[in-house]
Amino acid sequence: MSWLPEDFTHPVFVPVPGTTLHLRPIREADTALDYPAVMGSRQRLWEIFGPAWSWPKETMTREEDRIDLLRHEREIAAHQSFNYALLDEEETALFGCVYIDPPERAGSDGEVSWWVVDDLAGGEVERALDALVPQWIAADWPFQRPRYLGRDITWQDWLALPPA
């Protein structure tokens, strides 16, 4: 049985209220935008995601990022997991990502996490994304018990849960 209903259609464009930014599924072609965003915020992202995902490695190359984005693009197409890029109107800059994944740990039916680049951390855009994501998940995704990693549960507490 799939973690999503067979007839589920994932959103392809999600405006972020109060900003000129939007979310859309990430693509391999976004590597030129993603790589500088990730590596420019690598230390903070490692502090958030490193213990759980071992990402992003200090030595990650542009080619490794391209391969990772190709994997994400294929997983999105197969409805296995989702990575949404936070982009400007022209899609010339990437400012963060939202991940929507099947549960790895017991107690939820979807696991959601997100980040913004260092320049936006703690600011209006991050606050807008923090407000949007739970509302968007509740409105457009078929989860009864979504878990917001690093938000409603610490990463450390999540890692201590039994596998799903």
Automatic annotation (TrEMBL):
Domain of life: Bacteria
The protein's name in its UniProt record: N-acetyltransferase
Classification via SUPFAM superfamilies: Acyl-CoA N-acyltransferases (Nat)
Gene3D superfamilies: 3.40.630.30
InterPro entries in the cross-refs: Acyl_CoA_acyltransferase
